[in-house]
Amino acid sequence: MANRIKQRVAQALPLAATVAAAVLAGCVVAEWLSVASDASDIRAAAETGSLAESASAATAGETDLVGCFRSDPTVPPGETAGFWPGFRGTARDNVAYDGGVPDESWPEGGPEILWSIALGDGHAMPALFGGCLYLLDYDEARGGDCLRCFNADTGAERWEHLYAVKTKRNHGISRTVAAVGGGAVVTLGPQCHVLCLDASTGAYRWGIDLVKRYGTKVPLWYAGQCPLVDGDVAVLAPAGNQTFLCGIDVKTGESVFETPNPGGLLMSHSSVMVLKAEGLRQYVYAALGGIVGVAAEGPERGRMLWRTEVFTPSVVAPSPVPLEDGLLFMTAGYGSGGVMLKVSCVGGEWQVESLFTTDRRFFASEQQTPVFMDGLLYSVLPSDGGGERRQLVCMTPEGERLWASGNDDTFGLGPYLALPGGLMYLLDDAGTLTMARVGRQGFTRLARHALMDGSGRDAWGPMLLSDGRLYLRDSERLYCLKIGQAAAAPRKR
After folding, report:
1. Which of 67, 288, 292, 405 could lock 443 by a disulfide, CB 3.0 to 4.6 Å apart?
2. pLDDT in tens, 17-58
3. Where are the domains of the chain?
4. Sign of the dihedral through C-alpha 124, 127, 132, 136
5. Residue 151 and residue 71: Cα distance in Å, rounded?
6. How far apart are CA 360 and CA 287, in angstroms?
């Protein structure tokens, strides 16, 4: 009798385990689905759409970027005409040419908060196009990068695309700005996964794992490079074993150009910028190991034109700052200071000349990219910047330091952007927002407000400003502020 009982128990164990596994799987799927509102529509696989949630699972050690998609058909695009196509706005210079008509004073309670929403831990900020905000978030509960599309007027989520990839916190997780162009939205995730979706519908177009395709080494604090969409081409700097820069057609996912990597340059936290020198547009990237210029137009598009090793910090977070007439300023933190370069073509050969360098206490930046506006450069000095550390400073392109904002106006590692004519918004680490008038005459604070009650954490994501609305965040929440009126006249795109 005892033997028969043991046999029946042994036979029942596999069945019990199977049932338990099925129940567990059902709970996991139910939890995944519960995140969506009741109005969500999970779409099945289709050539013009995306896959359901089961496709988000990583198999054989590879990330399935086709991922999963869900949408809420009750949420339309917003009505704002604002346009901020990616990192640092329309000209990639952090000047809000379509910022609207700003209020030059705030009520006692600060600027009006139109809405705010919770985000995953990080510093990523959205692109703005067609009344929609596109933001690459990280969902720790579900374990994946999540491209989210919001109504820019209300913050309501229209759709999301998630692909599974495990990433641990490391001073935040997501930290890049999405890019829109050619009818597409392109993102670069913390582990160097590139995703391209249809900007209107969210339909999957293509995806690339830069580590697997190009041998990219994921940077120290994950990918900080923000994609550039130039016309119909997504421009990225994988800085891999063989390929330094690449251009990918946003419609087809096919390679337009691939620039060889000379001598093992590595991906930094910097982003690709566009410089015009001698009448030629160039892609400029500050890699670990050197700064490189690549032809951005014509039959030689993708050809490396020049490389310089006059500035090679071990950590690079700011991006190159193009000025005028081939001038290029580059800076970094951790004692690196900065350098002003001159790019020119002599006798058919491109060359780079170092005009002057700047000390970390004179003009430098640890994290944010300096702003060049109305012929002047602006930067917040790094934490090791001496007695004027964390102050906003102003310098001419010739290297003359004009002023510092003073001990009563310091800004940590936070972002700053400007409107043409000299109005600037600055955010400190704890979420205190300052509005100031800047120019040759100096720094004049117009208003200040502790937006997050002085308790914001790591408010480092680059702000965006369009049509009188300022979007900013700390490590866990995105805010939309009304800081002025939309422009009265329609703008051309």
Report:
1. 405
2. 443 443 343 333 334 333 333 333 433 333 333 433 333 333
3. 41-221+461-493
4. negative
5. 12
6. 20
